[in-house]
């Protein structure tokens, strides 16, 4: 059990006398107001805090006087607990309290279900009269308050100890009726507690019992027995908590008005991911109320219009007999199917009678693993007249304050007293090179405590087993501090940072540092690297003397700490011997008195071991921690460090902004949507409108009359045009295609870039496979671009879906990098289970021109790496790009691309994004198939030889290569090759220049080949046009490509090249087979010669191991190496084939510049005179004079000088390495911190989106694609701004899209204000 501890805080009302009284005042000077039983508070108590009276568990005497000679009976009232540890998977506990004297349980309260902050009332049996003799109480060193968890459900552990608080006899008999709060100490052996967890606090009130108290408790007991005998329902006799006794005997009858306020984060039950929720209320076996239906929402807010109020007008016994009311949230379904259950919760009667507003966690329906969400209820008491008016519909909502509950006591962190005018944002960035621990493994679990003066204002979480911890928002590395600048500047100390090692027995302090107030206030968010100072040894436990003794015992000290937690192990015996030896040598009186309880501890097991150590050797255990220096002298890792090297801590601070305060509040509560950043992350499947009838509509009809008689028309999905509902409900196939090509009305604005904008519209799909057993495919598209994603509506039962202009299909992305690719995936929506990928496509956008509207169709494939890819239908997109500055677009590629990541709140959504970005085939995980595909990809590069062969033949035979006038081609490349050959023969020194010229020539020749190919969609932006964009900041005009442009020529050319490759491969394969056949015959003849003289005729053994694949440890590194080679080969291929056209242009320009520089330089002159200078200066006869007058006179360096030089060299090397490591560490810290912030804002599941093209196959548009000049629509579309996931800034990074909007608005307001001032000035003139 834990040692005695004084109460952490004492509740005092705000009264002048409470601050002026002296801590040393006698009992006669204290004005005490008794508090009656039942928790009703008396007038303010004008006494000083009892925390000034400390007790150390002595066996005789009292801090307030001697032991009372008469039998003083005490009334102990359990008031409340707070911040208890959750003991169930639901995140709550079912706590109750035991009062224990010695080893006997004297009293037990009732259990309060599902709470971490219980408030005990008389109905919970929270009072007990201690009638034991004071001498007996002092002999047993006070009482213990044991808080336990009642394991009354399948999700909770059975009656686990939550925490124990020790109340000394001094504190009991010196109490005056005030509330005292004690810290709960966690049990030694518990699976509930993790490093950094705290058990919580308990508040009690103790005073001398009066005769009225005894009578009141006796009367209450009689009432309970009387009510028990009258209640026939067994459910009413035995409460839900399983604790005998009725909980409602102290309550008055009430008429309750219950208001269903709202629900949030409900399950999506419909195909579109949303629900149509309503709430049903059940009392006993009957439903007593039902709300109206809220359509298409997962976060409904109910009002009087939705019938959200109802009255509970029944007896207390009936309400408690039914265990309160049952709440069921259901989803209304159209058609013949039943309504789905979204979640249930049972509201206990105690919560109803407290008349409060409270949020409850819904229990998921059977078979559902997802979180069911929350529901908020508000309860208030009404009169009979108000109830009658409510029945007549005349009641206006009467708002009464709820019953006041006892507030929580003694905050863990004491706030600054007095007025505050500034809020600081303080961040503990990281610690570096902390000292190792004193345990066997020498690990540390450091956490940081922050003090403002003597008051602790913040504490981070511990980072397990790390001497270089990084603290983020998620583990408490950032906090807000309210201060008064004037008072803060006058302080001697600013903020103190103390680093401690977490340990169940109280970890040691690893270092500390104090930052002056001036440095805190002047810091504007810059990093402050501070050297840690030694811990303050003056405040250590006196038991630190035992630390040196434990260090002298060597490993005994470490074994002792481990032995405390064991059950009667040999280590405990070592500890006992150590204590006995210390007592014999006269270390101190306390050590001698510890020998007896220690020896008793050795004889017992379990808790008795720990009790013995606590009572007699507790100071020894703390002494080992406090005397860490004595033990560390036996630690070789610690002995190598300098004595004053305690590591470093990095902090930064600045004045908090309104954004910082909002974010910190959101990070603490994790509720709602922070500034709308999660709207696009909800993945709600929008299917607008609905089917009004119970039966589904017909998918197609035939007109019987009119101009369209006999024409088959199809149902428009997801809904008809809201402006033309009757006309557009059914349309013909031609009409649907025409409607789909019209401009979109609704756009989603996504992304965080500033380089340009990408406009994407998903027009439709054709020829999709049927993915459903019943019905047809339910299609929707998922679009991913950089740090944002968008999703279309779902179109049911259609293999050729078309998204209409009024549906969700249009996305506007802010572009960060011009070389980024657009990725589109088509999925089949499944209500149950995962959504199936139909196909995906990667659309390069770097070739697209501004002011051009591209309508492109692509084949859908399951991935971009499998050679035998089969099309899964087609998708049609309408794409357009806009750039603010063409020069900025080109120059943006000079910066290294920043890795883009997208966060999701649900692993199912992450799986969908992974399919869109990476495809179905996993090329990273180990597999024989994956290894084979890597090898096949590498062998596929031999097809390049066929193109090289064609190029060499064309070059040598002076065939036409570059068109000059129409179809006439001149052999320009042959001319260049001839000139280079004849000049190189005459001037061989030009080889380096010609190497770079050749590289540029190769790139330009490949681009010329691509741009002269028949397929217009395989062309790239010419090199001259890219130079014009960079030099003149001028973009090219619109690109006009008709549908089926040069289709016949392109198909013929592709078939010709494919046939050439096929024939060459067949010839190579035939030669390979013939060589293998000859080799096999040769091996057969050799084997026959080897078998001559063989006499072993036994049956040969065979094993599966002869045919098994090699071990993964051998093949997996090879697979990873092949993957890396394939990855970089793809990048090189994409650059030289101008798929990455901007990088290819930069490489071409750089090659030309380098070649020109080396071509102009007189290499013959430079090389000839360089050789002459080296020969004359190094090998000349003058070197004899150098030897005589200089080299021979040099003294040979001594060993000390050599060592000094070597030390200086390694010192400089170490400094350089530390600088590089510091830069890398800062990058790592910022990445970890940004990841933590993004997890809070957007979700914890992350997918990486590549910027550089790294796929094996590049998809080209089909021949029916076309482009035309963009014409703005007549009607301005509606744009919804959702932004992206990009962050900017440090400490608490801001969402970039939101910040850009604010900056743009501020800039616009400033311009308008300047214009207004200028106009006013002109008017005055």
TrEMBL record:
Residues 46-62 have a biased composition (Polar residues). It comes from the Eukaryota. The keyword Ribonucleoprotein does not apply. SUPFAM superfamilies: C2 domain (Calcium/lipid-binding domain, CaLB). It holds the Pfam family C2. Residues 1-64, 1299-1325 are annotated as: Disordered. Keywords: Calcium, Membrane, Metal-binding, Transmembrane, Transmembrane helix. Residues 55-182, 237-364, 401-530, 739-858 form the C2 domain. CDD domains: C2. GO terms for cellular component: membrane. Residues 1299-1316 have a biased composition (Basic and acidic residues). This is C2 domain-containing protein. It comes from Cylindrotheca closterium.
